[in-house]
Amino acid sequence: MDQVTSVPVDLPPLSSANVLAARPGAPRRGAILVVEDRDDVREGLAQLLELNGFVVSDAANGENALGLLRATPDDFALVLLDLVLPGTISGHSVRALQLADDRLAGIPTIVVSACEPDARGHAQLRPAAWLEKPFRCDRLLDVVRQFVSPEHAGLTFD
Fold first, then answer.
1. Which pTM was predicted?
2. Could you identify which of 16, 30, 83, 144 might form a hypothetical disulfide with 91, taking C-beta atoms 3.0 to 4.6 angstroms apart as the criterion?
């Protein structure tokens, strides 16, 4: 079952019984960074987003994700972040380092994970939204559109 938990970045997380939709303001323009270690999932997400008019970059691990973010922070409008990543930098660490860097902290991040969010972990990550795997493609697109404007019309599959 797909489930989205959204909280404004400056507020503490809400309990699962009290979840509200995020109010991110006007959608931004720019690329979406998909950070996912499984090739099939990462490529599928990138293809879905591109077919719906979004510009996508991707990274298979935390090191590559941070490298892309740090090299061109103004290019990114959103990060889709898996928490379980190979290598020395986990998804939790990517988000912590992102929040610690003034150039990256303002990029909304949607956690896309099979891990159940606990209150402490949710508070530390401060995601703009939390999308629990498995999820429906139309649900992902609905959440992404709250934060990012497509660059071109693309094909719609929702």
1. 0.81
2. 83
